[in-house]
Amino acid sequence: MPVELFPPVALRATIERYHRGRRKTRIFNHSINAYGFCRTRYMSAWAAEIDVISAQLDVLVIQSSGNLPDNGVGPYLGTADHLSAGRVYPDYLQQNSCRIANPAQSLQALTVGSIAYGPFEQEAWRSFASEPNQPSAFSRTGFGIWGVIKPEVVEYGGDCLISGTTEPMVDTPQLGRSCYPELVRSTMFPPGPAVDRDEVGTSFAAPKVAHIAAMLQQILPDESSLLYRALIVQSANWPDWAARLLSQLSEDDVDIDQETRQRLRAQARAALRCLGFGIPDESRATANDDYRTTYITDGERFIKARECHIYQVPIPSELRGQADEYDIKIEVTLSYVAQPRRTRRNLRRYLSTWVDWKSSKLGEPLDVFRRRAIRDEDTGSREGGEVFPWVLHELPQAGIIRDAKRNAGTVQKDWAVTKSNRLPDHFCIAVVGHEGWSKDPDSAASYALAVSFEILGQEIPIYEPMLIALEELQAEVEEEVQAEVAIDIEE
Predict the structure, then answer these.
(1) Minimum mean pLDDT among 21-25, 94-98, 131-135, 421-425: which range?
(2) Which among 171, 193, 225 is the end of a domain?
(3) CB 78 within 8 A of CB 98
(4) FRET partner for 215 with CA separation of 20 to 30 A, picked from 252, 306, 330, 382?
(5) Which SS3 state, helix, strand or coil, does residue 312 take?
(6) 161-163 and 125-127: which strand pairing?
(7) How far, CA to CA in Å, does 357 sit from each of 55, 295, 393, 428, 448?
(8) Residue 102: phi, psi to the nearest 5?
(9) 115-119, 138-142, 267-271, 391-395: range with lowest mean pLDDT
């Protein structure tokens, strides 16, 4: 991009041209970043423009998280600089100089980091990653501005190779091409192949996520881009090496001493900063199957400050049998947008209306949850039922991973695994609106919500029982509404 061109102006001109044109484009891949890491007090003009456009137009910007150079100049250090300073991979990715690059801190952009294909070693060269799906050596990490979880997802962008120890050399030599993504190359300057594996970068990871968004638009053409973003994040899973950390941190594990638990929590938090919510999956984003079902809101949903929308998911008795102990994974993702104001340096005042969500507890009656949600009470207490073992939780010190803000960003995901025989007969989610910078009583945020249930061991199918339970609940609600209408008419 020419230095004379102001990025926010170029971004708006591009999006408006294609969104208002014949194609009505709603998905934009933005694989370009500033050279350095983002600031954490004020939103930049570039990132704020993405937020403004997203509030004005129904578009989704897929944004690369940015790359570390092989060798940099302070304060913008490269991978080799960190190694020379005695910092080892992947620990150096937690340094402030490795933070996501502007405009990846945009709240509305879906920010994408990079992971490696797997380990490699040949001659004097070896990969940074020692097992599949570890963070790429160059991939910039979170958290973003105001502690927002960034990047939200990761995809395969390859890995650099390292040679030497005292004066390490970082490069992408041709012998390590299995570590690099397959890319279409320019044929403007022959000779050269049309396709090759010779470069790495988060710029190549982001379009793979844009592909999933395109598949969702093809399947759900009339739904908002907020739902596409929610379903992409909802489909994401942590890779095996990171999932093992959460498994070891299970609250039921009493054999872990406090020191080990603190170490595992620090590693899990570092994984969250690198991976976000994990690797998205096209099939999980676009379809249900016998063992996993996803509920979504349809159409535009608006919520004002001090409003509360409650959603109820019935749990069929087949899943709650006392003799059965199936592992059930529950995932919830909220995606919303509101008008930003760039001059604010506080998360809650940056948006005209900010939104978060909370869930019912194990064994909590519906009317109790409704009263608690409407009053917007603190849910850290176990009064009225046991709290689901959320990985993040709405309270930063109450989840399996500590010191991470689930409700800071405009896409908020959490997940929990519990035994099937502990499930209540219903699971409820409350979406709550809060006042931001706007004092207009009609100011509202637009949102989309996704809730998934998955039986991890695939012992029994759950799609059909949950569909039947939902249909029965809908019929029951319709009967109640008809009865209320009949009473009003008689009066």
Answers:
(1) 421-425
(2) 225
(3) no
(4) 330
(5) strand
(6) antiparallel
(7) 20, 15, 10, 10, 12
(8) -50, 130
(9) 391-395
Instruction: Domain of residue 119: give its range.
Output: 7-225
At 1, list the tokens: 């991009």
Q: Which pTM value belongs to this model?
A: 0.95
Question: What is the distance between the alpha carbons of residues 11 and 23, in angstroms, rounded to a whole number?
Answer: 17
Which of helix, strand or coil describes residue 452?
strand
User: Which pLDDT band holds residue 403 (cuts at 50, 70, 90)?
Assistant: very high
Query: Among 140, 101, 102, 136, which Cα is nearest to 120's?
Result: 136
Indicate the pLDDT class of residue 477, thresholds 50, 70 and 90: confident
Residue 296: CB atoms within 10 Å: 16
Q: Is the pLDDT of residue 76 over 60?
A: yes
Give the Cα separation of 35 and 72 in Å (integer): 10
Q: Which residue has the tokens 């709603």?
A: 26
- Helical segments of 22-181, H only: 45-56, 79-84
The single-letter DSSP state of residue 437 is S
- Residue 330 CA to residue 466 CA, distance in Å, equals 13
| 347 CB-near residues (< 8 Å, 6+ apart) | 146, 147, 148, 354, 408
- Chain-centre distance of CA 459, in angstroms? 28
Please give the Cα distance from 417 to 453 (Å, whole number).
10
Paired tokens of 377: 């009470």
In the β-sheet with 121-122, what is the strand arrangement from edge to edge? 121-122, 125-127, 161-163, 169-171
Residue 194 resides in a domain: yes
pLDDT attached to residue 480: 65
On whether residue 95 sits in a domain, the answer given is yes
117 lies in the same domain as 190? yes
Token output for 146: 């105001």
Dist CA 262 CA 241 (whole Å): 18
6: left (phi over 0), alpha (psi -120 to 50) or beta: beta
- Count of Cβ atoms closer than 10 Å to residue 177 Cβ: 14
Nearest CA among 161, 153, 158 for reference residue 182: 158
Task: Flag whether 482 is in a domain.
Answer: no
Q: What is the rounded CA–CA span in Å between residue 211 and residue 462?
A: 29
